[in-house]
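User: I'm preparing a small set of examples for a lab meeting where we compare how different chains pack in three dimensions. I only have the primary sequence for this one, and I'd like the structure in token form so I can line it up with the others. Please keep the answer compact; I'll paste it straight into my notes.
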Amino acid sequence: MKIIRINAIWCGGCIVMHKVWKQIEEDYPNIEMIEYDYDMDEEEVKKYEVGNILPVAIFYKDNQEVARLNGEKTKEEIEDIIKKWN
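Assistant: Understood. Below is the structure token output for the 86-residue chain.
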């Protein structure tokens, strides 16, 4: 499984989610995590059609998008997707 995360330094929800994602990374070391900055990685971010609601997390299994989360989420909501697809 791979998770693409898109954040921005000006995004309050992104700051809140940082601690949750750090816990996810520690609990699931086998998942590849890729993080992009909404402003700094503009060309890469365009590929994912993320819209205006940040943060965004896009979950991939076998290079296919299987789920997408927008905005602040709980660790449990993220883990539900991981358990379903990992």
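A couple of notes for your slides: The helical segments are 12-27, 42-46, 75-85. Strands lie at 2-7, 32-37, 56-61, 64-70.

User: Perfect, thanks.
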